[in-house]
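Much of the work behind modern protein science is quiet bookkeeping, done one molecule at a time. The fold becomes a row of whole numbers, each drawn from a learned catalogue of backbone shapes. The protein below has been through that process, and both of its lines are reproduced in full.
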Amino acid sequence: MVPWRVSLRRDINDVWLRTITPPATGRLEVWDTGQAGLVLRIAPSGSASWSVRTRTRDGKRTRPTLGTWPQVGVSEARRRARKALADIEGGGDPVESEKAAKAARLARANLPTVSARLAEWQAARVGGHDRVWSPRYAAEVQRIAVREIAPALGKSPLAETTRADWTALVTAKRKTAPAMASLVYRVAAAFLGHAEAHGWIDSALLPRKGLAVIAPPVAARERVLTDDELCAVWMAAGELRPKPSAFVRLLILTAARQLEVADIATGEVDLGAGRWTIPGSRSKNRRPLILPLPPQALDALRGVWPEHADRAGGNWRLLGDIAGSGLRGFSKLKERVDKVSGVTGWRWHDLRRTARTGMTRLGVPRDHAEAALNHISGRSVLERIYDRHDFAPEVIAALSRWQTHVCALVTRIPSAEIIPFRHTELGAA
């Protein structure tokens, strides 16, 4: 019967190793006479590994591994053996140290990462019952999490990140994009505040009042398009495919937010009444808003209206490249509009500011113009509690006046000669 393990002692050298025949079964252990404690174990497959056999200070057997042959040659194996023996004589135990290190790596691998905790936070805010985010803000947080936070810290365990990690993330962005740095700070601070409250971290990892120092907000934008520029953008939209064209013209006519227009759905539009109802679930302040749709807007929507609208259901989004989806790719579309119109230095949101400025110029009362943009920040808490008027007729009147002005610009017909479109149910403009 062939023994399971065969041991022998000899001076191990490269010449002998190149001629050694692996055992048919079991394993062959060769004790090196050139270095005390050094052992080469050879398996039937021909693989060979180095180790040291000795005892620790408390008399416990230990066998730290040193590598495999031929990757580790004889000279290197002896050098490693001497170092290991010196460490053990000094009171260490490489085997136990490696076990402890492995346990620490496993424990660390089980710690939730920054990306995992970000996902939990987002799910709580989107699907929770308290302080639920609007779809627009949820999309913005997702963009910041994926593009800005995850590449730098996503794989790190959240509990092991430091204040220096987070401040470095923000300050690095500040050098290239100050406005984005401010937004990254606010998102990160909100996330870390949530993490601290839920015990994911022991203390706040961003200074609670550090925004002004680390990433001060940039000055508010003031860009307002002139009438000529607005007309040029409108005409450029006519050179686009029907869906992006409808997106641009609806932005101009309704002063709605970018994502509100991009995700407009069949169930929100009443073509007969000429109105668009943005549900509270899609608006920034969670309040529904009814907007008038003049003939130009209705024509644009009819151009993209699905033939199977009755079967599509109310959630069928009208403007996306994929049937039933919302429009995306805003940056590329903006570049196309800039090129065709020759108007530059503006953003989609500037169309909303242009409409608000235009309504004031046209004599629309302040409260009515603010309501048309679905703003509530200008009203005190007491006003919002006690004054429950929804300003629906005033919104219709305010936007109709703006839409009449826009139609006069793009048709070159004096606005006094344009008959305002009469909207059913909520009265005339």
User: Anything to note?
Assistant: DSSP finds 18 helices and ten strands in the chain. Residues 423-429 have pLDDT under 50 and may be disordered. The two ends are 105 Å apart (CA to CA). The CA atoms of residues 194 and 265 lie 34 Å apart.
